[in-house]
Amino acid sequence: MKTLESYLCGRFVAGAGPGEVIVNPATEEPLARVSADSLDRGAALRFAREQGGPALRALSFAQRGALLKAACDAIVAHRNELLDLAVANGGNTRGDAKFDIDGATFTLTAYAELGAALGDVKVLADGDSIALARSPRFAGQHLRVPRHGVAVHVNAFNFPAWGLAEKAACALLAGMPVVSKPASSSALVAHRIVEILVEKAGLPAGALQLLCGGAGDLLEHLGPQDVVAFTGSAETGMKIRRMDAVIRHSVRVNVEADSLNAAVLGPDVEPGSDSWDLFVKDVLRDMTQKAGQKCTAIRRVLVPLPLVDRVREELCDRLAGIVIGDPARDGVRMGPVATAQQHKDVREGIDALTRDGRLVYGVADLKPVGVPAGKGYFVGPVLIELEHGAEGRTVHSREVFGPCSTLVPYAGTAAEASELVARGQGGLVTSVYSDDTAFVHEAVLGLAPYHGRLFLGSAKIAEQSPGPGTVLPLLVHGGPGRAGGGEELGGARGLEFYTQRVALEGSRPVLDRIASRSGA
Ligand code: NAP
User: Fold this and answer.
1) What pLDDT band is residue 392 in, cutting at 50, 70 and 90?
2) pTM attached to this predicted model
3) Residues with Cβ within 6 A of ligand 1?
4) 60, 87, 180, 283: least buried by Cβ within 10 Å?
5) pLDDT of 518 over the 60 cut
6) Closest CA to 120 of 504, 435, 415, 517
7) 262-472 domain in CATH 3.40.309.10?
């Protein structure tokens, strides 16, 4: 069986011991082994700081952007192979796999273009110069410079390609080298991407390393110029924040964690209208795409009381048409969840949610298409309904990371919708579907403090919208509270995490020169 090697200190290297077996979650067929036992993670971080960092900082933004473009082109050239791997290792349908792989190249392209636009400079001026005295000669200027450490990226299992690329794009463009750690269970795609990049992208030595297998003591080697960007469960996020090295060296940590994303249907939306159809399409997509294993997926569906029957009927009808099975087979619309552990967690989560409300859709005797009997980590789509949103407890506190959503009836005011959504204690995205500007305005003001992004669905954007579940590179991704309190992407905003802001005071011509033309 294939062993996934890590790419550390300029070479591919296997960990000791038998490690963990990675399987196809639809068939449970073993695909590869992964182990990071005995690998010298401290040496990898030193290699990044000593070789990758200086090499990247010697380049301008335009040159770093060109590296991202080369990385993107290399991945695109291997797109079909990567889609096949994502189907086999991630339980992804081909559409799910495209969402991950094409999302990765789309994000790399956006940051390659940003690099080209920032041009032939190595540091970023942060705002205009500021007069500090009566004479215009004495001035202040904020500057952003790349940190002299390593960016450690720890990713979740659900987006092995996009997760690697979106974090690496920001760090590399900012001038920081990366050590990326994919989730072990779905590491095949990230591993193959790094093999492709090593062969074809021409990245400087130490700019991008990959640790396949457990994190081990990786984060114990962090120093004061390093940063950690983590995506995964709130529990692991908390462990990372509490680590000695992180506290001792004030290591910057960005956490993208759980989120009880909501969709709010406005009381003005008529069944069958464009806004209604958009709402139904988005809820269905989020329940079934990647078997609901998207951090941005809609978990709570807020519906005005008079519209609940129609929404339930339409969702249940359409869920009944979803073909579940081996995602490698044509016609299958939803594959399994990613691991045996996920299967257990999702089923337990569904049980907990049904103690709050009643099950209105679920497949009792699931027979996934094209799968040997008793094999695979399949969970059919599940829709639960509360009597009234205010009565729910678990729905506002437990993220069930699978194909499961809950209908949360509400009285139809923006104030009540905002109050119910806020019970989730901070989320990545909430969507509001309405053509009533006053309702949308009030809802935005109520929801905004609790979110990183709000998606405003209406008839006017229905045809162009990718839905709230798609994270776009030019908009920020992250959220307060339960969602981890982090922020990634957002175009040039995404570079901030990897740079140090420094305030300069001095003579204006010197500051102007440093801010606009000089290298760091
Ligand atoms: P997880 O169990 O926390 O694992 C996430 C990553 O952390 C994996 O790479 C894992 O490695 C690693 N890890 C585990 N323990 C660690 C430790 N002590 N030190 C350092 N790294 C450690 O989460 P998951 O099950 O993969 O992901 C599901 C969760 O991620 C969901 O709750 C979901 O909401 C969240 N998520 C959030 C976003 C977002 O953008 N906000 C996106 C996707 C997913 P191993 O695999 O080797 O154990």
Assistant:
1) confident
2) 0.95
3) 154-158, 181, 183-185, 214-215, 219, 231-233, 236, 239-240, 256-259, 295, 399, 401, 428, 483
4) 60
5) no
6) 517
7) yes
